[in-house]
Amino acid sequence: MTTTNAAQRRARAKVEYNAFLAACPSRQLLDRISDKWVVLVLCALGGDAAQTGAAGDAMAMRYSEISRLLAGASQKMLTQTLRALERDGVVTRTVTPTVPVTVTYELTDLGLSLHEVSRGLRNWAQNHMEEVLTRRTAYDDRAS
Amino acid sequence: MTTTNAAQRRARAKVEYNAFLAACPSRQLLDRISDKWVVLVLCALGGDAAQTGAAGDAMAMRYSEISRLLAGASQKMLTQTLRALERDGVVTRTVTPTVPVTVTYELTDLGLSLHEVSRGLRNWAQNHMEEVLTRRTAYDDRAS
DNA sequence: CAGTATCCAGCTAGATACTG
DNA sequence: CAGTATCTAGCTGGATACTG
Lengths: 144, 144
Prior knowledge:
Structural class of chain A: mainly alpha
CATH superfamily of chain A: Winged helix-like DNA-binding domain superfamily/Winged helix DNA-binding domain
Radius of gyration of chain A: 21 Å
Number of helices of chain A: 6
Strand content of chain A: 5-15%
Helix content of chain A: 55-70%
Low-confidence stretches of chain A: none
Oligomer: homodimer
Strand order of the largest sheet of chain A: 1-3-2
């Protein structure tokens, strides 16, 4: 009976794994906010960048503004991220039919609350990152 | 002068991008907690699983216990994750030299506080995920 | 201006086999 | 029991070119 055994164990593991995943609802959110560009877009629209002049609170931004702020993001990633966030109701996409079309993005209430969550993360990071880094180098030194 | 132009633009973009990254310290943390298995290990050691009997607060767990709880995680991923967390001072790794060696993992104070952060995330997820899902299906329906 | 479409390199994570 | 080592498939993200 060696034929089905391995496959069965694998299938069983798959199920248990999914069950544990389902039991941990933060996974859903994490898949959303753990994305590199999602966080950066959130920062940008939330006004954390402060390099554009205004700072502190949410603002509507044009595609090209975001693109300029997040230099290094390809259009592909930017558009993909923006679409995903729009799909989830985190940002609004407003098309103004001017001559060359104008598109602005803005955080929704949902997006603002998500931005708040990411601020909580940022706070933790600022308070503990130094300790983490210290531990990390200590660990690396210990390992001959 | 078309030779250096493209490369220069690319280099410039790289710098700006990094600058914005650096300005957003949550990236560091996100790289840590956004990992699938990190969160699950955090859940396990934090006692969120509740499938082992005890529930609610932190507990020391053996490698095999974690492995059983997170069925579906390969040893590679589990070990890798555990090592990274140990390196960052989030968990402790205790080796007891019994006959077959016994290794237990436990959250440190730092790990507990990180676990709290992830609980904040979980709360947001529980409060808003339904809305996100609604928006998402609405968006998908709209797209003919 | 604000995208869409396509192709491809690199990294990650899973499978598998072996060890103190 | 608690790993380490190695190979590879698949997905993600970046480059590039084209469009309403």
